[in-house]
Amino acid sequence: MRNYPLAFAIASSAALILGGCTNESEESAAQSTPSGDGPVEIEFWYAFGDKIGENNEALVEEFNASQDEIVVNAHYQGDYADLHSQTQASVAAGNAPHVTLNEIASMGAFAEAGMTEDLTPYIENDDVDLDDFVEG
After folding, report:
1. CA-CA distance, 133 to 60, in Å (whole number)?
2. Distance separating alpha carbons of residues 19 and 90, to the nearest angstrom
3. Residue 51: CB atoms within 10 Å
4. What is the Cα gyration radius of the chain?
5. Sign of CA dihedral 118, 54, 61, 91
6. Which of 11, 72, 94, 134 is the most buried (most CB within 10 A)?
7. What span, in angstroms and rounded, lies between the C-alpha atoms of 68 and 91?
8. What is the C-alpha to C-alpha distance for residues 107 and 121, in angstroms, rounded to an integer?
9. Distance (Å) of CA 22 to CA 19, 62, 82, 91, 128
10. CB 45 within 8 A of CB 83
11. Where are the domains of the chain?
């Protein structure tokens, strides 16, 4: 059985989480901290429009409709080069998105710059079966 909302949440998080390892702004931190006054809002940046962008938006809408604890706000940033440069600039400015898509060839550079977070504790805490995902 496919659980697309769960798969989207995990895949998006696995793409690249920035908040835990960056100088997140107070406003951004406040948006991602549960206060009991509504859902947690997460900013998600992604690359590529057309069918890929439509698919990203559809997955976000499906995830948002599936529950009321988290709201993902998806923002198209251009191609990977645009997305990566905007992500690096936002990290340097202290206002990085909570989650951003990253392609595998750039993961090393982002990791060396301290812009990634190890997701192992989240995977273990939520008992995620990594065999449900394509390697890579």
Report:
1. 18
2. 11
3. 8
4. 15
5. positive
6. 72
7. 28
8. 19
9. 6, 29, 20, 6, 25
10. yes
11. 13-103+114-130
Banded pLDDT at 76 (limits 50, 70, 90): very high
11-62: pLDDT as tens digits = 444 444 444 444 444 344 444 555 568 999 999 999 988 898 899 999 999 9
CATH, domain range 13-103+114-130 = 3.40.190.10
Q: State how far the Cα of 78 lies from the Cα of 87, in Å rounded to an integer.
A: 12
- For residue 46, the cross-strand partners are 76
Please give the model's pTM, rounded to 2 decimal places: 0.68
Q: What is the pLDDT of residues 85-111, one digit of tens each?
A: 999 999 999 999 999 988 888 888 889
Query: Token pair of 130, please?
Result: 């990594």
Give strand pairing partners of 42.
72
